[in-house]
Amino acid sequence: MGTKTLCLLLASLLVAYYVYTPVPENIEERWKLMLINAGFRTIEHVAELTEWLGLMHYMEVLMMITSMEYTAPVSDENMTVTDTKFNNVPVRLFIPKKQSSGLRRAVIYIHGGGWCVGGSAMEPYDLLSRWTASKLNAVVVSVEYRLAPKYHFPVQFEDVYTVVKFFLQNSVLAQYGVDPHRICVSGDSAGGNLAAAVAQKLLEDLEVKVKLKIQVLLYPALQTLDLDSPSYRDNENKPILPRSLMVRFWSEYFTTDISLKEAMASNRHVPAESSHLFRLVNWSNLLPEEFKKDHVYVGPKYGSSRFGKKYPGFLDPRAAPLLADDTKLLGLPMTYVLTCQHDVLRDDGLMYVSRLREAGIEVIHDHIEGAIHGVLMFITSPTHLALGHRVANKYIEWLNMNL
Ligand SMILES: *[C@@H]1O[C@H](CO)[C@@H](O)[C@H](O)[C@H]1NC(C)=O
Ligand SMILES: *[C@@H]1O[C@H](CO)[C@@H](O)[C@H](O)[C@H]1NC(C)=O
Rounded to whole angstroms, how far apart are CA atoms 61 and 68? Predict the structure, then answer.
């Protein structure tokens, strides 16, 4: 057997190893998803290896790959697209060319990517914003906040907040012809986290007079305390966000200190002094029965108090909106929450739905069976998923009816 044949055989075996990771049975386009998952797993392994060799930070490798999906701000016959800055924070702006009889609606969009990767220029995000702007004849502001590991919490939050606060000024809204009563903040995954955090913060900011009409949280990450909820357990190895990667994203948001990641991985990172916060994320109380299945709530495990002192960010509601007290939820806008079945973050969304409803907030909740985390990312070739398109349409339709 020649060396080439041997190499080919080994390469095929390696590919097969990636491709044959279990993908849930009840999922449509299963083969496609297996290939997508194989691609993601390969990237994660390459990132691990590169980091282990000391060549690059894990997230820098992921960033390099996602940046290959960046597109220029291209205007067309229907839409003016520009990259600009709002109070020194970059944004990508989508403004429809179609005449509007009155003032337009506006959506401030915050992309996902675990506070570490992604961007408003990534093809799926660019496309989602175009579709939204076009369907609603609305102005879309897609925020380009700074990312970890170079920048940690609260920089990501502050960047987004700066943009929102700048945009919500009456003079700025007037300049873009936006109706101050029909503005929404929306985001997916880490972007949903930032959207929820911003919406809470606006309630206590007396300088902002304009109120959001809606917040949209698409499979958001909302809490740092319990990384062992039923959805974390059930979806530990599901595409495209295994628990290990989510733990890495969370810890990188606060620090590159690997000991926080390790503590989070064993769910022993919360100091006993913060035990009072656990009731805010108690899935035993907050999850509907059908999502608990046969999981048993064992209560919190505590870790060294040094984490809480060194990285107080993970106990801060601006990073973990579920940690806001009930009184801080009063007055939040109408909320659309989307959760996916095969997602470690499913319970974060479900628990916020319960908390918000208890606080009397109007919540519209869509739970998508058979969907993986990040399903809205798969709306461009070659990784189109029919479900990605359906979910995107569903969300944009809802927004069109309600904003
Ligand atoms: C612009 O809008 C028209 C009418 O809705 C549509 O037919 C056309 O495909 C759009 N152009 C682009 C580039 O999207
Ligand atoms: C969580 O809820 C369960 C069931 O209501 C309760 O027994 C338990 O004490 C709660 N634990 C915390 C930490 O809030």
Answer: 11
Question: Quick check: 153 and 254 in contact, CB under 8 A?
Answer: yes
Nearest CA to ligand 1 atom 8: 78
Instruction: Report whether residue 75 contacts ligand 1, using a CB cutoff of 6 Å.
Output: no
Return the H-helix or E-strand segment holding 126: helix 123-136
Unique residue bearing structure tokens 């170079």: 150
The third-level CATH classification (topology) of the domain covering 76-223+314-402 is Rossmann fold (3.40.50)
What's the token pair of residue 250? Answer: 């969370």
What residue segments make up the domains of the chain, in order of their start?
76-223+314-402
Which among 388, 393, 383, 347 is positioned nearest to 371, based on CA atoms? Answer: 388
The CA distance from 130 to 132, in Å, is 5
Amino acid, single-letter form, for residue 132? T
Q: Is the dihedral of CA 130, 131, 136, 141 positive or negative?
A: negative
pLDDT in tens, 270-290: 999 999 999 999 999 999 999
Cα(144) to centroid(ligand 1), Å? 27
CA 181 to chain centre: 25
In angstroms, the CA 209 to CA 169 distance is: 8
Give the tens place of pLDDT for each residue, 222-275: 999 999 999 999 999 999 999 999 999 999 999 999 999 999 999 999 999 999
Structural contact between residues 291 and 346, judged by C-beta atoms closer than 8 angstroms: yes
Residue 259 burial class via C-beta count within 10 angstroms: exposed 0-12, middle 13-18, buried 19 and up: middle
3-state secondary structure of 139: strand
pLDDT in tens, 341-367: 999 999 999 999 999 999 999 999 999
Nearest ligand for residue 274 CA = 2
Question: Whole-angstrom Cα distance, residue 214 to residue 315?
Answer: 26
- Counting atoms of ligand 2 from 1, which one is nearest the CA of 275? 13
Beta-sheet strand order (sheet of 363-372): 79-86, 89-96, 139-143, 104-110, 178-188, 214-218, 334-342, 363-372
pLDDT bin (cut points 50, 70, 90) of residue 16 is low
| Ligand 1 neighbour 78 (Cβ under 6 A) | yes
Specify whether the CB–CB gap between 305 and 214 falls below 8 A.
Answer: no
With beta carbons less than 8 A apart as the criterion, state whether 152 and 254 touch.
yes
For residue 400, give the nearest of 200, 392, 165 by alpha carbon. 392
